[in-house]
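Technical note accompanying the year-one report. For the benefit of new consortium partners, we illustrate the data format agreed upon in the data management plan: each record pairs a sequence with a structure-token string. No post-processing was applied to the example shown here.
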Amino acid sequence: MITLDDVKENLELKELIESSQKQLNALGYTEHSIRHITIVSERAGKVLETLGYPEERIELARIAGYMHDIGNCINRVDHAHTGAILAYEILKDIGMDPKKRTEIMMAIGNHDEQTGTAVSDISAALILADKSDVHRDRVVNTNLSSFDKHDKVNYAVTNSEFQIDKDKKKVTLNLTIDTQISPVLDYFEIFMDRTMMSKYAAKYLGLWFELIINDTKLL
């Protein structure tokens, strides 16, 4: 069985991850590199693990999470689709079973809110994990005076907690936002599509998606 550790050792993947962030830095986007993909990988696995899925599905979710943003090395536009194809080819080269690498390709190809939706347990876990990573650590721009709304909202989030409760059948994103930096309303203006995508992904897994901001339940 090909594991996440096997995937991490692939030199081609390492270069794609590095090049992806290089391009996003040039475009002024938030961080999508090792920090982000590691968090997404861990959280995607955690979702399925908490729900009692088999270890094989959990590991595929972790791998999908780690590889999901490599399409950014080609272009930010359609990065989910190009990244899915790149991931499929890398996994093919390292010997992953066709059915498993197809599952990962499908999940990656559906993780972007503009074109995707939950189509499997792995894709639903990936979506929930990816959209939950809102935090000031993702802001690459160090000049506060030049922040756009995405920078301001991410930088305003001083704490982000992602929790899954199997018994209560819910997944919770609990954020602390410094309203001196960005009002809570801006979060919804920018991330409404991502929030709704998370809601549908949770529903696919039989869960309710709960959003709490500054101790107030908003969804």
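Partners are asked to follow this layout when depositing records. The longest strand covers residues 157-165.
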